[in-house]
Amino acid sequence: MDSIYKSLVEIVGEGHASTEQEELYIYSHSLGTAESHRPDYVVAPRTPEEVQQIVKLANKEKIPVVPLGGGLALTGLVMPLRGGIVLDMKRMDTIIEVNEKARYVIVEAGVSQGKLISCLERYHPNLMHSEPMAPAQATIGGNIMIHGQGDLAQPYGFNSDMVNGLEVVLPTGELCKIGSCSVSPYWFAQHPLPDLGLFLGWFGTTGIITKLSLRLFPCKKINGVDRFLVENAELIPEILLKITHTEMVGDLVSSIQGLPLAVRGIHIITININGDSEKEIEFKRQLIREDILGEYIRNGDCGFMGTTPDFRTGQQRPTITTVADIKRGGGFEYVGAILPVDTYPECCREGEAISSKHDIIYTLGGRVIGRSHAMMFFWSYAFNRADPESVRQAREALHESDELALKLGGIPWKPSVYGQKLIMEKMEPNTLELMKKIKELLDPNGIMNPGNWEVM
Amino acid sequence: MYELRFDERKCLACQTCDCLTKCQYMDIDRDTAKVEMKKIINGEDSFVLHDCVTCYACEEYCKMGNHPFYLIVERQEELDIPPPPRPLIKQAIQLGIPWRGDLKIEKVKEPVLSMGMFAPLVDLIQGKLFEGLSLLSVDPRTAVHLFCQLMYLHYARTSVIKERLPGIIDTIAKHDVKEVIFFHDECYGTFTSYAPAVGIEVPFKSVHFFEYLYNRLQELKDEIKPLNLKVSYQRPCSSRLSPDKLHFVDDIFNLIGVDGQREYIGENALCCGGAIIGQRYEGRYELAADLQRRNIEDMVNAGAQFCVFNCPACYDTLSRLVAKKGIWPIYLSDLCRLAIGEQPAGWR
After folding, report:
1. Across the interface, do A229 and B85 touch by the CB < 8 Å criterion?
2. Which of B85, B95, B285 sits opposite A300 (nearest CB)?
3. Which residue in B161, B137, B140 sits closest to B149, CA to CA?
4. What domains appear along chain A, each with residue ranges and CATH number?
5. What is the ipTM of this complex?
6. Tens of pLDDT along A387-396?
């Protein structure tokens, strides 16, 4: 028996490590357009101590370790580019504590979005976390590691801004706490030092998050959803600015898509309005409709779309991903980029051009982050997995979108390896050098998710 | 191009001007109505063109059958003063363009019921009431090929109706049908009121859904167990195009033993507010909310246990609101099925 495999089984027990081809196959593929890469081992630890032992083993053997959450980032961030061990975190899925008074939850990193939502809905209905519109199996750890955003992005920012503290296995195997938890039993603050930014956004290249504290927020009883239609993209930034000025809305997304045909060429601003009573919702809705958006409605430029009762009360979600399968074959990937909201019109214009060039129906949009501090703009491309030409077209469109994001002054979000290289090419040399030093210091053997954030 | 057959002399000679004086949404006396109708006939701007909420009711109020509402909508389009904002118009127009495949046309065995645009509601059409019917438009992807287009009256776009309607009629006719029952009032109104009003020939006979339901219930009379319920009927705007068929609602209610008495009934019925809420003029949102409040309060005061719909747009707009007041929203066909001991489709 392979000695590494044997060691892995000794660490995690039978049934939680594998070299079986069919299992390796599953971990070889990205949901997006990234090339497939086969790992040598797959292992699913249950405790931080097991993670430590695996990392120490990998250092000893000088083989890569790729930490994996739900594997749903689409941009190929957990592809074992140089083989080695894929470390599947999904068994580490305990919700350790919900502190209702300080409004935070401590979870193991492999807890799924679905599990946390269910727990809060059932046992703590007055609290919510910022839920990304990802499938339920996406993990909390994976989402903060990519600086994800959720349905509270507009009022509160990135999900990674909502992290109070981390427990991390360093690339050399030590277990380390960051945040208030390093000096206190309470996981309520990011302070004192060092900064969480040593780990968040690094895609596991500086350590493996095993535990984290996430801020929770008041959960309003009712969610109202309105959709505001705008033809002229130039109006969108000022409209978003005016809406956010009210400080009355939740998730705020503007999008445009080529299909269904009814909405082609029309930007749809989805406005979530939350409240504890119909009266509260109606007050906010009326203020936004009349005082903030009334002038656009009266001059005929924009208007509120009729929606079904289920949509208006938030029981139905925007269905932008329903066009993901428009090419058949189930492929769908997007470039997300963090940009100033002002760039929305240009993002749309250029995005439509890229889509058209590659014969893909356009699906574009931006989610407002933190009261218009920024937006996450997405250029989404459907492709047919069974058709290599379709995959190639989508990949090219994605690369062009990465380039566009940087050209417009943005930052590709959860970038693919291609996007990471573009970012590093544009980065200030001293910043790049700092990244290199951090990586070399923390991961002297270069075993952590190699190929990602690789500073040459 | 098809032109509206509007008799100007008849209109100008009219002594009552019911079309405008009876309007529930504008306060207009007879003298003002005369002046404003003259302006509208002459193609001039009138406050009526701005204040019209497109409830269709003046089509019913005009006892001369002179189509004042169709004229108002034509003028709204000509003078570019549509009630909804432009993106809503664009969206509505694009909604009527086929993009999910062609309709497979086959000869169908009569009697035939067309769901029009409402193929997703085809599960309402089940049970004894509908035995032996052939159905047109059961696939949501291709329902648009049988979309009557009359919705564009709310959007000041009679040009779109005139452009597309002959093709829709042709598509229906290709099924080799002599007579078609239309699920929605709007389709029935299209083929029996609007098409003749603008000179579009309809080569098949249209049957109102309520008339079909009533006749079928007569056939099943022995199976009816009176429901002994109080209900409120939500009359849709397009019912104003076929007021001669409205009595079937009462006839059906009598047959199945329900009491439909309420204040806002018949000519006095209130709009659901679905079209008004999105209009661009100041105060329309509040107007729609006020209409809905008055409408539902009236249902509550009438002791209604059920709110009866036939229009899916009214249902979408009001069902949740009436349910919150403890009134059960139900399609008329489902209410009829309940009366013959069947379980309504919407109750699964």
Report:
1. yes
2. B85
3. B161
4. 3-88 (3.30.43.10), 95-218 (3.30.465.10), 221-314+320-414 (3.40.462.10)
5. 0.94
6. 999 999 999 9
